[in-house]
Amino acid sequence: MVLKRLKEIENPTVVAAEPLTEFVGSLMQAAGMRENESREAATVLVDADLIGIDTHGVGYNLELHYLPGLMSGFMNPQPDTRITHETPGTATVDADKGIGLVAGRFAMNLAIEKARQTGIASVAVPNSSHYGAAGYYARMALPHDMIGLTMSSGGARVIVPMGARDPWMGTNPIAMAAPANEEPPFVIDMATTVVSFGKVAIARTFGVEIPEGWAVAESGEYVTDPANSPPAHGQPPLGETHEHGAHKGTGLGMMTDILCAILPGEPVSGLLPDNPKGGRFCHYFQAIRVDAFRPADEFKANMDEMLRALKNEPTADGYDRVMYPGQPEAEAYQDRVDSGIPLAEHSIAYFKQMAAELGVDYTL
Amino acid sequence: MVLKRLKEIENPTVVAAEPLTEFVGSLMQAAGMRENESREAATVLVDADLIGIDTHGVGYNLELHYLPGLMSGFMNPQPDTRITHETPGTATVDADKGIGLVAGRFAMNLAIEKARQTGIASVAVPNSSHYGAAGYYARMALPHDMIGLTMSSGGARVIVPMGARDPWMGTNPIAMAAPANEEPPFVIDMATTVVSFGKVAIARTFGVEIPEGWAVAESGEYVTDPANSPPAHGQPPLGETHEHGAHKGTGLGMMTDILCAILPGEPVSGLLPDNPKGGRFCHYFQAIRVDAFRPADEFKANMDEMLRALKNEPTADGYDRVMYPGQPEAEAYQDRVDSGIPLAEHSIAYFKQMAAELGVDYTL
C-alpha cells in the first residue's frame, strides 16, 4: 500500500524534536530570518514531523520550499507583516512576501483574539509563501476552546479542474480542528486533490508506483510509475472523475482560491499561466468560539461521545478499526515524542550541506 | 450517462414557477403552516426546480419529506423559531422542530444582518428538519455582496465512514456562493458523499443503473442496479476508497456534523442507531462581507476574471467546455424561466391526491 510505504524510510537518522527544532531554526536564521521568527517557523515544520505528516516536515520542505525561497529572495526573510483592512470580526493581513509559517501564526492568533469579542473571526492573508501543513494553524484554536479552520491557495498549478486539460489551481488544502475532552481532537487537513502534491513528489523521489487517479500526464492518461516517466503534468481533483465527484473537488479548490486569494486581492495561480511557479501563496484563517454557541464543556463532552462512537463502529472488510481524522496523527505524535523523528539519508545530506554553506554548526 | 438521464422525464407536465409556487404553498398551508411561511417554503423548493436540481425540487421532496413531515407532526407546522444564544457575530437558533425551509431563511438572514456589523457571522440551528437544497441559503448572501456558506447534517444515516461497515452520517451537504459581476456567481452545493442521496433514490424510482461507487449493499459490495436489488445499505463518502480520498469525504461529513449538530447541541445521527430516521436535521450558516476585506467592486471584477479564465481553458478529451460550479444551474435557470419546470407523471398524481386530501384546488 503506497500510503504506508511512503512513510517507510530506510536507515533513518532518528532525532528528538527539540534539537531538530533548534537546528532547523538556526538554518533559517542564517538564511536571513529574525531569531524569534526562525524558531516559530521551525516549530511549525517539526510539528508536522511529530504528527507523522512527513510530506510537510523538515525532511522535504526545507529543501523544496524554505531555504531556496529565503536564499533566492522569493521569501522575504524579514517581512513587515501588517494589517491592511479590519472590521471587528475580520482582517486582511499583508504577509509582505514573507515565509508563510510566520504569517500563518500571526494571522491565526489574530483570528483567535478577534473571535473572543465577536464569537467568530476570519483573517485573509495575501502576498505570502508556503505555510507548511494547514492543520497546524487549525489546531492553534484548540487550547482556546475554539474551532479552527484554514485554507491555503496559490503556488504551482497542480489541480486539473474537471473538464480541463491542464493544471490550473494549487492543491489548495482545507483544514479544520475541533476540540474534544479526553479523545484526541478532530483534525482534518486535506488537499482538495485526490492526494497531496507531496505524496506524488515523494513517490518520485523513492521510485514508488502510485495508484491510478493520483497524477495525469499531458495526454490525460494516468501516470503510475513516476520513477520511469516524466513528472506528472497535473493531479485530478478529489472525486477524480465526473461520475465520482470531480466537480466537487474542483469546487472545493475554487472555494479555497476565492477565500484565500480573491477575497484579499491576490491573483489566483490559474491566471498566471506564464509563471511556472504560479501565484504567490495566500491563506485564510477562521476561529469560532465554542461558547458563543453553548458551554464549551458540554460541547467537548459531546465531541468525546461522537468520536468514541465512531471508533467503536463495526469495521468493513480489510480494516481492523475505524479511525477519524486527527487520530492517526495523535498516535504518531505520541510515538515520535517517545522515539524521535526519523529522517532519510538524503535529508541529512542536505542539512549537512546547508549547514556548511550557511556557516551553522551541524548538531544532529 | 446516468447523471444526465436522471433529469430526463418522460411526458412531463410543464408548469411556470409562479403558479407552481402558489399551488405548493397552498398545499403546505393546508398541511398546517402559516400563510407567509408556506409561501417562503414553496419559494425555496421551486427555486431548486428552476436551477435544475430536480433531486431537491417539489417533484420528489413534497412527497419524500415535507407533506408527510407536516402531517405526521415530525415537522412542527407553526414553530416558534427563536434565538437561544447570541454574541455580536454568532447565534444559536432553535428551529422548534419546524420545517427547515423556514428556519434556514430565518437563520441565513440573521447571519447576513450580523455580518454587516462584524464582517463575518455564523448561525447554528439545532432541532430542525430537512431544509431542501443547501445552495439556496448560500446564494441569499449574494445580493448583499457577501459570500454565503451553509451546511446541513442529520436525518437518515447514509454515509458509510471510511473503514466502517454501516452508514453513520447523513449526506451532510456543504454549499458556498460568492458573487461575481457579469458572470453567473460561483455556487458549490455538494453532498459529502460520492453523489447525493436523491440521485440514488431517483435511480431506484426510474430503474436506472448507477455506477460503481455510488451505493453499497450490507455486504460492502457495490449496488449498481437499484431497481432489482434491495435499497442501498449506505453510500461511500466523497473519495470512495482510501487510496482515492474516502478519509477526506468522511472528514468533510464529520466537519458538517460538528458545525451543525455538536456546536449547537444536537445529537448526531450516528449516535441514534435505534432511530431509523437518524437525528433531527441541524444547519449551519455563515455570511462574509466582502468589503470587510477589500472593495466589493474589485472583488467581483476579479471573480469575473477568474470564472472567465477557467471557462476558456482548453478542454480534456470527452468535454466540449469547462464549466464551474454554479454555471450549469444559471443556464438551467434561464431555460426554465423561459420554458417552465417539467414535472413527472408520478409527481402530478401525488399533487392531485394531496390536493384532494387537504381540500386545496388543483390549479396546475
Distance between the termini of chain A: 31 Å
Mean pLDDT of chain A: 93
Q: Based on Cα principal axes, name the global outline of chain A.
A: globular
| Element pattern of chain A in H and E | HEHHHEEHEHEEEHHEHHEH
Beta-strand content bin of chain A: 15-25%
Number of strands of chain A: 9
Sheet of most strands of chain A: 7 strands, mixed
Whole-angstrom Rg of chain A? 20 Å
Strand order of the largest sheet of chain A: 2-3-4-8-5-6-7
Structural class of chain A: alpha+beta
Biggest interface, chains and residues, is: A-B, 88 and 88 residues
Spans where pLDDT lies below 50 across 5 or more residues of chain A: 1-6
Quaternary structure type: homodimer
How much helix is in the residues of chain A? 25-40%
The number of distinct helices of chain A, counting runs of at least 4 residues, comes to 11
Structural features, described:
The structure is a homodimer of 364-residue chains. The first copy, chain A, is of the alpha+beta class. In chain A, the strands form two sheets. Chain A has a seven-stranded mixed sheet with strand order 2-3-4-8-5-6-7. In chain A, strands 1-9 form a two-stranded antiparallel ribbon. In chain A, a hairpin with a 2-residue loop joins strand 2 and strand 3. In chain A, helix 2 packs across helix 3 and helix 4 runs parallel beside helix 11. At the A-B interface, helix 5, strand 4, strand 7, helix 8 and strand 8 of A face helix 5, strand 4, strand 7, helix 8 and strand 8 of B.
Q: Quick gist of this model?
A:
Chain A is α+β, with helices and mostly antiparallel strands and 364 residues long. The first copy, chain A, has eleven helices and nine strands. In chain A, helix 2 packs across helix 3 and helix 4 runs parallel beside helix 11.
